[in-house]
């Protein structure tokens, strides 16, 4: 049996800094462009058509997320060349970074898969994960899957984040009760 350490809601998000294609560095969980929260979307890689579809769908909600102070960044274990190729299939304006290492995947508590063949990809890759990091660098919302078929519905997620971000609701981080 595989043992994993899932990144818990309410915990500090790890410091993981990765490269973008333009050579700039981005630290996951560090909001940009005036946002106070960040949605970190971990996807399987260019080989995954479901990831491509999900990322393209997420673009339609970028503006609504920005209105509530949340920016988006997407990351995978792909190489620079693999990300370049994948971007030709994407119609998105949020940043992508590449090169998430297996140790970083484990640090985030992601499930890791072995490729079925060289045609799929040339490296172990993480299954999908989504983290919403608040202004304290704390995991506010987490969703980790062991396959590409289980991901949060984007509209439901964005509506929920809108509700959470409304100070009148005083909504705490959920799922933090001790075992």
CATH homologous superfamily placement: Glutaredoxin
Our estimate of the beta-strand percent is: 15-25%
Distance from first to last alpha carbon: 22 Å
Note the quaternary state here: single chain
Largest beta-sheet details: 5 strands, mixed
How are helices and strands ordered from N to C?
Answer: EEEHHEHEHEEEEH
How would the blueprint of this fold be written?
Layout lengths: L16 E3 L5 E3 L9 E6 L6 H11 L2 H6 L2 E6 L4 H8 L8 E2 L4 H7 L3 E2 L11 E2 L2 E5 L5 E6 L9 H12 L14
Parallel strand pairs: 3-4, 4-5
Antiparallel strand pairs: 1-2, 3-8, 6-7, 8-9
Polypeptide structure, described:
- By secondary structure, this protein is α/β, with parallel strands linked by helices.
- It has a single domain (17-163), classed as Glutaredoxin, CATH 3.40.30.10.
- Helices cover 25% and strands 20% of the residues.
- The model has no long low-confidence stretch (mean pLDDT 92).
Short structural description:
Pfam families: Redoxin. The protein is built from 5 helices and 9 strands.
List keywords for this structure.
single chain, 179 residues, alpha/beta, Glutaredoxin, five-stranded mixed sheet, two-stranded antiparallel sheet, Redoxin, Thioredoxin-like_sf, Thioredoxin_domain, Redoxin family protein
């Amino acid at each position: 049996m595989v043992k994993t350490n899932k990144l818990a809601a309410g915990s500090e998000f790890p410091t993981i800094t990765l490269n973008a294609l333009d050579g700039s560095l981005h630290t996951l969980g560090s909001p940009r462009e005036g946002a106070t929260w960040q949605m970190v979307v971990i996807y399987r890689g260019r080989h995954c058509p479901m990831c491509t579809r999900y990322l393209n769908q997420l673009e339609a909600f970028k503006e609504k997320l920005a209105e509530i102070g949340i920016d988006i960044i997407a990351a995978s274990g792909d190489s620079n060349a693999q990300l370049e190729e994948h971007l030709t299939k994407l119609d998105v304006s949020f940043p992508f970074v590449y090169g998430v290492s297996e140790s970083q995947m484990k640090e985030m508590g992601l499930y890791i898969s072995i490729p079925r063949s060289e045609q799929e990809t040339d490296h172990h890759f993480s299954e999908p994960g989504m983290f919403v990091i608040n202004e304290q660098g704390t995991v506010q919302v987490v969703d980790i899957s062991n396959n590409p078929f289980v991901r949060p519905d984007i509209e439901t997620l964005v509506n929920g984040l809108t509700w959470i971000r409304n100070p009148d609701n005083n909504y705490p981080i959920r799922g933090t009760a001790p075992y």
